[in-house]
Input
Amino acid sequence: MTTVSVEGPVRTCVGCRARDAKPALLRVVVIDGVLTADPAGRLPGRGASVHPDPACVDLADRRRAFPRALRVDGPLDVEPLRKHLQTRPPNREQVEKRT
Ligand SMILES: [Zn+2]
Output
């Protein structure tokens, strides 16, 4: 039995641990000790993937999945990520293209 619903690269959400297509997940990186959303996927360094969903961010926070996935010492504040999700207009992602 083969699954054909997901094509291309697949990542695992560090929150709910579900596998999903890479574009469906938000890449996050750590810059100067701060969790930073990388919606364009262009920032350098080790990244972690999480659903752009506050529930998944909370889950990852509680499980301390971000420091583990990103190989950093100490806890990471997920507040920047929460803010990022709050300011994201629902259902209108990728309408604007910035180059
Ligand atoms: Zn998730």
User: Anything to note?
Assistant: The pocket of zinc ion is lined by residues 13, 15-16, 18, 51, 56 (CB under 6 Å). The two ends are 41 Å apart (CA to CA). The longest strand covers residues 26-31.
